[in-house]
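ARCHIVE CARD
Drawer: 12
Card no.: 0347
Subject: one protein chain, sequence and derived structure
Cross-reference: see card 0346
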Amino acid sequence: MGGWRYLAQRLTGEGDDGELLDVDLPLNDVSLTDVLSGPTQLSGTIEPSFSKLMVGGAPLLNEWGTAIYAEEDGNIIGGAILTASGFVGPKWSLDCMGFSGYLYDMPYLGSWFGVEIDPLDVVREMWTHAQGQPSGDLGMIVSSLDTGLKIGVELEQVEFDTESGPISFESGPVKLNWWQTHDLGGEMDKLAKETPFDYHERHQWEGDTIKHYLDFAYPRMGRRHNQLRFVAGENVHVVPSVDRNGDDYASEILALGAGEGRTMKMAQLRRSTGRLRRVGIVEDKSARSLKAVQSVAATDMAWRKNLDVVSEIILVDHPHAPMGSVKPGDEIYLEGRLDWMELGVWVRVLSTTLQPANGNAMTLAVTPADRVAG
């Protein structure tokens, strides 16, 4: 992978037209991780000190005031906000977080509620609010996609009986407010998991301006590659480790859906395993019918049938899966003979990490494809 360069841009919170501070940042030891439904991670070092990166005896690049972009052959591969750095002798280490992570630990300062609203409208409200604050505009363009689902109901008082007596609570709209909502990024991730939907950030040149986009996909992003494959010993450079977590095992599923107390929708699903009975419990408040809850139970049971979990793959460039052909969200078949077992499983790519100085290898975080909602 040739043709890499790194750019630094000033962030003022006034949109996407900040001054380019350096179009050839001397960044070394770069690691760039592209994440599905999470912020990009970028790190690197600068050594020795460069006079062009000093202003008035202080570093030119400031935490929460600088964006750094990795560009290959004119295309921006990743962009991130400088959030932390450190100095050891002449070495300056930089750690950066993608723009989609800007909402983490940020509060909602107003009071807003939604009834029968699309989950992605809630996310858009979060971004509109955050970018509408003074010095808060990243220039992030948020996707207009809808899921077609509706969440939030009219406010009502709900009561049900327990062994300790009746319990009463309010059930109602989706709420964002200053006294409860103190982590907008966490709320976005919670909605992404519960709905489910995927999100992914991207940055691209449009004329002389770098534009920032937050893309959505429902129920999931990416595609299944039937013509590509990962093969241990061929394009999978290091034999992957396999974990078998008995905590995930279940021979029976108890699925809980919409409603409260005795009115809650419920379904049970059992299978014969020749092992001890273990019950997995799954809850999905969007399941409002018996059929929907039964589907939730079947989906949960499906992924529990295989305890073999591969979580990381080190991939080398190969015709089976050329470098750059697989992106976060994609699914690809992983196979090969390991010392203790024959491996054959569809995996979904959760993130890709590359080091441009070592262009023929990439580290992928993966999960079994049947363990992903949607």
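Annotation on reverse: The chain has a mean pLDDT of 88. Helices lie at 119-131, 184-194, 290-304.
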